Amino acid sequence: MIERVPSRGKARTLPAQLQRAASQLAASELPRHVAIIMDGNRRWAHERGLPTVEGHRRGGDVLHEICATSGELGIEYLTVYAFSEENWRREPSEIRVLMDLVRWFARKEARELKRNNVRVHLLGRRDRLPQTTAAALDELVRGTERCTGLQLNLAIDYGARAELCDAIRTLVQEVARGTISPGALDEDAISRYLYTAGIPDPDLLIRTGGELRLSNFLLYQVAYTELWSTPIYWPDFSTNAYLDALSSFSLRERRFGA
Fold first, then answer.
1. Is there a domain that residue 180 lies in?
2. Number of domains, the chain
């Protein structure tokens, strides 16, 4: 059983930071949808001589902070890469810890997310998740389904190529049944069969930990997404760092190929 440990970060000063951010960023300059590859948990722990689980625990605290900041700024969608399809290749002991942490987050954060009017949506396959983890996630989704603020999309057992395979498989079945004609298979049709159906494509993709790759995350959806990478490990990713990313986004001219 994993118990919550106190955050090692500084005391939260979010209101003052948000006031400064609001004075610099107009609502029209903020992304509607932010996606984050939360990378660097294990390296953060190893460099401090701590067990890997400590990096993941601290990462959960940071997600809490970034979720709160996003909601208060009026961002509509936040999608985070919590557990990739490739993560199943890790040591069984680490996978058990990660699944425990997902279950812990779902149960411990449920009341706070609901209080902050955050609606939770899941992206990814479900068949390989431990039953207790899947049940906790289902309960979290049901408990926040009437919330109308920020939508937090948790990508768990997610892989973009698997998502595309699932979408294509379903589309082929629909064509075979005559529900949809081959001529109607355009970009909008494909989007309707992705895990992200009904969710706008990300405007900004943040990757922490210094890597410069997509790691099989939202490959179809990020065709014109603005990218922002930082060497900061996810457990050290602060509200100020997040505001820096949003400020960088506000200065970019998005031409979508025009």
1. no
2. 1
Would 70 be classed as within a structural domain? Answer: yes
What is the DSSP annotation of 13-55?
-HHHHHHHHHHH--GGGS-SEEEEE---HHHHHHHTT--HHHH
Element (H, E) at 120: strand 119-123
Query: How far is residue 193's CA from residue 196's CA, in Å, rounded to a whole number?
Result: 8
Q: Write down the pTM of the prediction.
A: 0.90
Q: Residue 226: in which H helix or E strand, if any?
A: strand 226-229
Q: In the predicted model, what is the mean pLDDT of the chain?
A: 90
- Residue 58 contacts residue 42 (beta carbons within 8 Å): no
The CATH code of the domain that includes 57 is 3.40.1180.10
Tens digits of residue pLDDT in 5-62: 333 334 445 566 566 665 566 666 899 999 999 999 999 999 999 999 999 999 999 9
Determine the structural domain holding residue 103 and report its residue range. 30-159+202-250
Helix (H, G, I), strand (E, B) or coil at 78: strand
DSSP H or E segment with residue 174: helix 160-177
Measure the CA–CA gap between 62 and 236, rounded to whole angstroms. 8
C-alpha triplet 36, 49, 3: angle, nearest 5°: 65
Closest CA to 77 of 204, 235, 163: 204
Answer whether residue 197 is part of any domain. no
Mark 115-150 as b/e (b = at least 16 C-beta within 10 Å).
ebebbbbbbbbeeebeeebbebbeebbebbeebebb
The residues carrying an active-site annotation are 39, 87
68 within some domain: yes
d(CA 188, CA 39): 31
